[in-house]
From TrEMBL:
InterPro entries: Cytidylate_Kinase-2, P-loop_NTPase. The keyword Kinase applies. Transmembrane segments: none annotated. This is Adenylate kinase. GO terms for molecular function: kinase activity. Keywords: Kinase, Transferase.
Amino acid sequence: MDAPRRINVVGTSGSGKSTFARRLAHQLGQPYVEMDALFWRPGWQESDDPSFFARLQRALAQPGWVLDGNYQRTAAMKWRDVQMIVWIDYSLIRTLYQAISRALRRSFSGEELWPGTGNRESFRRSFLSRDSILLWTLKNFRSNRRRYVEAFADPRLAHIQRVRLRSPAAVETFLLSLH
């Protein structure tokens, strides 16, 4: 079987989906599309849905891609032509560890998250704010997991290959299997 050409990598924030999706896109020679880069505008401003959906639609018009991101309200659009959904589903403890490590690294490095936006994580934003991605991860971990369990069991998605990876070892095995 040929490797799929249209893949959506999903998982809660901090799960490692972006790192995995970039690796997968590189390995398959497909464009990497990051939904957060399509959504976030300069100064941490959110895109309105029509603008966001238009950018997403343009990105998905390519013949192949590895799409990184959840954004439940885009499911019909992104899963219309998807061939595979890969769910990075690590434990809450592992996910939090990774999210905290990432937040600390980004806070101290000052790296821009999406080119041209000027958006950077700060210690204050990551750890001491209501907008904290860590707080968001804690509040949404269970509901995200429940949503993907339901989606993976949904018979309307039976035509889509679904892969659930629950550990870093499973990620590595999956990537090796594509060679």
